[in-house]
Design a protein that fits this description.
480 residues; alpha/beta; Beta-Lactamase; TIM Barrel; nine-stranded mixed β-sheet; seven-stranded antiparallel β-sheet; 20 strands; 44% helix; 23% strand; EAL_sf
Length: 480
């Protein structure tokens, strides 16, 4: 895969993760939000209905001998109804006849043989709507029915049309029937079996949900966005690491020649080759590798690939230069590979201008490398972090003149010549070899030769080439 596709791909993967996780968490929060309404409504409803269950013993003790209630008993029943807001009325049944009701006197026959407990009567004689009541036997001849007021599902009605399922009947606010599957007039139910539900108004519930959970939603979004950003970076980094570890980034060698055009060495450059054989421009991945501190990994890969190639055959006098940063110098694997490679060629490690030296023990570490024949160069001198003070603090063997100074020989010859002359003078005083980079014209080469520069590198002589082409080239050329 080409690196230019990895960023869009990593972003796409991160966005997919974001929306998947956000959608999942949002859905769970949304369902829990609705469940909270259902649970709260069920709690309120059960509290109202359980009133009679909790006071059943008191009813039996107070009215155990009740038959046809006298005036005092009627007042007592009325007070009970007034005390409990959920009750609408209490009816007294004696010998299977309604003999009294706090709502109004009744005298009619009722159905025999009903067990004590909660019932739904499908049609009230007064309102033609269903009614909920509790049947309690006081003695062998007398029972009471405690009628409840119509349902007020205030909690559930905030998010739609709430209802309670009493087995085969679903009742909404004011005991409105939503569903009726019963064929009997009086349907008995158990409190533990009633279920709350709601026909959700999506717009209302989402508005309410967002209003109440906005803080959580915003926090979740921020956490996920940060996580997805880090995931994007992680995917990019791991992708690059994978490419480096599997040697998808290949060493390309640009020959370095002397004044007579003889090849005396080469600089190893990193070139990314895709699966389709396309060449990825270095500016697309080198800055990222340096930024993510993957340069040691890349340097190890290039050192390893060169070591296992046939370039080293009869290359004892060849100078092979590798770009690296200060960080690479302290990587044990870079040290081990450098020590091994230095046995087969003149190994030169070039410090790039893109990162500064920050460690105080760098000179000491360079000396450890020197014990194995490794030489050092400062790349692109005069640009980036390749400042003149490095020449006093660190020991180098080569100084490479950056292409920008060479290019100016065409447009601003006099000033550029003076500048290069000063670099040549400085190099001689410090006993440094000079290599001029980026030479593209005969005129540039001629001027540089007159200034005393011995080694050259650029498209005028050779372009960077893959290992096989370089091996074939040096096989044909004279030995340096």
């Amino acid at each position: 895969m080409n690196i230019k596709y990895i960023k869009p791909l990593s972003i796409a993967i991160s966005l997919l993760v974001f929306f998947t996780v956000f959608g999942t968490v949002f859905t769970i929060m949304y369902q829990n939000f609705i469940h909270t309404f259902l649970t709260e409504e069920r709690r309120i409803s059960l509290e109202e209905l359980r009133v009679v269950k909790e006071e059943e013993l008191a009813f039996k003790q107070q009215f155990s001998t009740l038959a046809i209630p006298d005036e005092n008993q009627q007042q007592a029943l009325t007070k009970i109804v007034a005390k409990h807001k959920c009750m609408s009325s209490i009816g007294v049944i004696h010998n299977n006849y309604f003999v009294y009701s706090t709502y109004g006197k009744r005298d009619r026959k009722v159905k025999k043989g009903l067990e004590p407990g909660f019932y739904i009567k499908q049609k009230s004689m007064l309102t033609s709507n269903p009614v909920i009541y509790y049947l309690l036997h006081l003695n062998d001849k007398t029972s009471i029915r405690i009628y409840f007021k119509p349902l007020t599902l205030e909690v559930l009605d905030r998010i739609g049309e709430g209802y309670i399922n009493f087995g085969g009947i679903q009742l909404a606010t004011n005991n409105k029937i939503l569903k009726n599957k019963l064929n009997i007039v009086h349907s008995r139910f158990d409190l533990d079996n009633i279920v709350t539900g709601v026909n959700i108004d999506r717009v209302s519930v989402i508005k309410l949900f967002i209003k109440r959970k906005l803080g959580y939603i915003c926090s979740l979004s921020i956490i996920l966005l940060v996580s997805c950003y880090l995931l994007t970076k992680k995917i990019e980094r791991e992708f690059i690491r994978y490419q480096i570890r599997h040697h998808r980034i290949k060493p390309y060698l640009q020959p370095i020649v002397d004044r007579d055009g003889h090849i005396i060495g080469a600089e190893i450059l990193a070139r990314w080759i895709t699966n389709k054989g396309e060449l990825v421009a270095p500016y697309l991945f080198i800055p990222y590798i340096e930024q993510e501190k993957l340069t040691p990994l890349l340097t190890c890969s290039l050192l390893d690939q060169i070591y296992n190639s046939n370039v080293l055959n009869n290359a004892k006098a060849f100078k092979l230069s590798f770009n690296l940063t200060e960080l690479c110098l302290f990587e044990p694997k870079v040290y081990a590979l450098s020590k091994r490679l230095a046995q087969h060629c003149r190994l030169v490690l070039e410090f790039t201008e893109s990162t500064p030296f920050i460690r105080k023990d760098t000179p000491k570490k360079m000396q450890v490398y020197r014990q194995h024949g490794v030489e050092f160069a400062i790349d692109d001198y005069g640009t980036g972090f390749s400042a003149p003070h490095y020449l006093t603090e660190y020991k180098f063997d080569y100084l490479k003149i950056d292409k920008c100074f060479i290019d100016n020989l065409n447009d601003n010859k006099e000033k550029s010549t003076h500048l290069i002359e000063s670099i040549v003078f400085l190099a001689k005083k410090l006993n440094l070899e000079l290599v001029a980079e980026g030479i593209e014209t005969d005129n540039q080469a001629a001027i540089l030769k007159t200034l005393g520069i011995r080694y050259f590198q650029g498209f005028l002589f050779y372009k960077p080439m893959y290992l096989k082409a370089f091996s074939q080239l040096i096989a044909k050329s004279d030995k340096p």
